[in-house]
Amino acid sequence: MKIKIAAVGLAHPFEVGYDQAPALLEKTVAALKRNGVECFDAGVVMHDLETVELAAERLKNCDAGVLMICIATWSEDHHLLDLLSLVDKPVILRAYPARDTGSLCCAHQIGAVFTDIGKSYEFIYGEPDDDACAEKAKKIAIPYALADCMGKVRMGAIGGRVKGMTEIAYDEFSIKQKLGARIVNIDEKELTGKVEAMSDAVAEKLLEEKKEMLSCCKVLSNHESMIESMKFYGAMKALVDEYALAALSVKCYTTYMGKVCLGYAILAEEGIVASCEGDVTNALTMKMLYELSSKPVNNTDLLYLDEEKNTILFAHCGSSGFSIAGGEIELAPVRLAESGVCARFVMAPGKVTAVNICGHGEKFRLSVMTGEALPCSMEFPGNPTVIKFDKSVEEINEEIMKNGIGHHWMVAYGDFRSEIRRFCALKKIKYFEIC
User: I need a surface site. Which of 5, 113, 366, 401 has the fewest CB within 10 A?
Assistant: First the structure.
């Protein structure tokens, strides 16, 4: 995901500090770049209509999600109104500490004007090279970058949803409207046809190609199951390439249990997210979290509360990417069916965010909770993680039931509440922050 901000200066030639405006702009841009933000410097300090038009010309083809106005001095506020009539983007007003430039009071003045015309804005105040200010700008820009990224996602729904899980029935219109992604509905025969057409020799070659990736794994499944799993991986990868998919979901339970799990884990390491049981909405949740964390995401069920330790066990059969493992990885038969190949391991400890998305139309809703993933044992045969929360797990449980949040939780490393909260505000998604 590309986080990009465009920056332009604003100053008045009559004011103290006008001659320093280009340097302020340069330092602000440098701080953004130093903190991992791609920044387009328009190279213009606006002070009249000509410079406004020059800035607009340079900005109009820029793909930055946010425009930062670097206010060097007090300035006439109509220059921004003229700019936004030509290039209308979300705005950050950036003011700088100084007694005599009027930077801060100009930001206040512009804020009042924007409020009256209904133009939303963000505000950052601090020295141009302040890393904390640059980090704040990055957090502001992330939801816009995420919205842009999700708007380009093509999500493959293979075979529809699992029978008996009405909760995960997906609403293509809500998904397009709220998340931006487009659903590509794929008949499961397209998957199985590719599996059947692949020879054992080709599957053996695929397995050899993934030898290095799988070298960290202890293989407990038989060779026949490994070959079958590689055929499903190859078929899913072919569909990913054919339909230009960034995410997918297979109606695995019960027909394909253990057949697609290893393929999911390999795809996760290759940057393609995949969710279990035909849960399209939560595959897109995984995509969002993957973009925020840059790591594979664990597809889980919320299974068990330990009130004494104030922890919750989350787990599923075992299809997560190997790089989030906190110990030995076993390639083993799936639970219940006792066949196929799952990637079984416990998640590594660390700060995590768990997200659920469900619902339809105006009830489309996203729920978030953060906690600390603890070292744990194989408490459930799959990818278990035990998360400790600051909030009482009894309260969490009650809140989930009160708001009809659902049972699938996607778990990623990091605390992304701020970014997700802003994303939901931007996309007008009903948001529940449980903890």
Answer: 401
Alpha helices in 294-362 (DSSP H): none
Task: Give the DSSP per-residue string, 34-67.
Answer: HTT-EEEEEEEEE-SHHHHHHHHHHHTT---SEE
Query: What SS3 class is residue 418?
Result: helix
- Residues 404 and 261 occupy one common structural domain: yes
| Selected residue with higher pLDDT from 361 and 130 | 130
Q: Give the model confidence (pLDDT) of 67-87 as tens digits.
A: 999 999 999 999 999 999 999
Do 377 and 299 fall into the same domain?
Answer: yes
Residues with Cβ < 8 Å from 169, sequence gap 6 or more? 161, 360
d(CA 409, CA 276): 11
Rounded CA-CA distance 191/235 in Å is 6
CA-based nearest residue to 372, from 389, 385, 356, 355 = 389
Domain of residue 301, CATH code: 3.20.14
Separation of alpha carbons 57 and 87, rounded Å:
9
- Alpha-carbon torsion angle 196, 202, 205, 207, nearest 10: 0
d(CA 197, CA 194): 5
- Identify whether residues 263 and 409 lie together within a single domain: yes
* Residue-range definition of the domain harbouring residue 36: 4-141
Per-residue pLDDT band for 61 (boundaries 50, 70, 90) equals confident
Q: Which two tokens stand for residue 325?
A: 């493992």
**H or E stretch covering 304:** strand 298-306
Give the phi and the psi of residue 388 in degrees, each rounded to 5. Answer: -95, 135
The position carrying tokens 């007008």 is 428
Asked if 109 and 253 sit in the same domain, the reply is no
Amino acid at 341: V
What is this structure's pTM? 0.93
Asked whether residue 135 falls in the same domain as residue 168, the answer is no
Mean pLDDT of the chain: 96
Round to whole Å and give the CA distance between 303 and 300: 9
Amino acid type, 321: G
Cβ proximity of 295 and 182 under 8 Å: no
Rounded Cα distance, 269 and 280, in Å: 20
Give dist(CA 416, CA 354) in Å, integer.
9
Question: Which residue type occupies 266?
Answer: I
Structure confidence at residue 182 (pLDDT): 98
Tell me, what amino acid is at 9?
A: G
